[in-house]
Amino acid sequence: MKPGGSLTERYLALLKKSLLNVLYLENEARIAYFVIHALRGNLPPATQIVSDFLGIRRSEIFHLLKEARKVGGWLVYGGANNAGHPEEAAARNFFFTAHTMIGEARLDNIHYCLDTIIRDGIPGDLIETGAWKGGAAIFMRGYLSAHDIHNRLVWVADSFEGLPRPTHEKDEGWDFSKDIFPYLCVSIEEVKELFERYDLLDDKVRFLKGWFCDTLPVAPVERLALLRMDGDLYESTMDALNNLYPRLSDGGFVIVDDFNALPQCREAVNDYRRDHGIADEIIPIDQDSVYWRKSGSRSSNPSTQGHSMRSLLKLLFSPRRVQ
After folding, report:
1. Which residues pair with 156 in a beta bridge?
2. CATH class for domain 103-304?
3. Which helix or strand (DSSP H or E) is residue 302 part of?
4. H-type alpha helices, 86-216
5. Alpha carbon distances (Å) from 64 to 37, 172, 263
6. In sequence order, which residues have a C-beta less than 8 Å from that of residue 235 and are 6 or more positions away?
7. What are 25-69's pLDDT values in tens digits?
8. The pLDDT value given to residue 33
């Protein structure tokens, strides 16, 4: 954002940077550098890791982390012969210090959707299904607070115990459960603490704890203006669509975090849209994520909005399939 913007926009720009940890990215690069080399058994001198500020910022690991913050996901490290070992998966917890994995482009997309919702007076609350550390929902609450909006709620739906083991046939081979991906398991206490850290935990934030098949059918959500889905699996994505899309106002937005990253997620979206005759244009956000606006809106063509990042980026940061 350019200097001279409003205080509201400056706050929201700073909130994004804080959620993405881009302000102190060299410290994360130092930790990542140490972890990677420790796992490979070839640690460099400690002074090289700690004191070489400019060297860290010029390093490959810093560059990769910086790119990951733009496009979302996490850093893939480890070579072809050792990628995916349990100790490497667990090590990610030590150096992924950001409060969201969705990246700059996807945060900008939420910002754009909320600007449009407020401009066009689209009624309803905001929800994310699949929250991890809660960063996207924290930004939603920060946006409402910055704009002094008090008549909308932010719903945070998650098991807070990681992803379920796959049971649907279309999720076979995609096990993201906590035994395999422990860093995807974040407790509700930790998420609430992060909301508090940003001074954004209040009665306008509501938590739906449990598996989507149990919580979403009975969730006390009357109307939505924004539905952001990050459930990864076919079944989780379909649970969100079946239970929440009918509550989405005309002119509201659907965001699908892993549409192009995970084929089972894309298949769930395509199946639901086909079965319900939804023809609204699917618009890319970055290499993995998409969104659409529910027909009946009073909007201009969203494909021209400035927050979408269309450039094709090398897929270094997408999750790898678990065999």
Report:
1. 128, 207
2. alpha beta
3. none
4. 86-95, 103-120, 135-146, 188-197, 212-215
5. 16, 31, 25
6. 164, 166, 167, 168, 170, 171, 213, 268
7. 777 777 777 766 666 666 666 555 555 655 666 677 777 777 777
8. 72
State how beta strands 290-293 and 283-284 pair. Answer: antiparallel
**Residue 256, strand partner residues:** 229, 290
| H helix count then E strand count, the chain | 12, 7
Closest CA to 139 of 166, 101, 94, 172: 101
**Residue 239 in tokens:** 């649970």
Name the pTM for this structure: 0.81
Residue 240: which of 266, 273, 213 has the closest Cα? 213
CB contact at 8 A, 223 and 247: yes
At position 85, the amino acid (one-letter code) is H
- Residue closest to 285 by CA, chosen among 261, 249, 319: 261
What pLDDT was estimated at residue 129? 98
Which ranges in the chain are annotated with CATH 3.40.50.150?
103-304
Return the sign of the alpha-carbon dihedral for residues 158, 162, 163, 164. negative
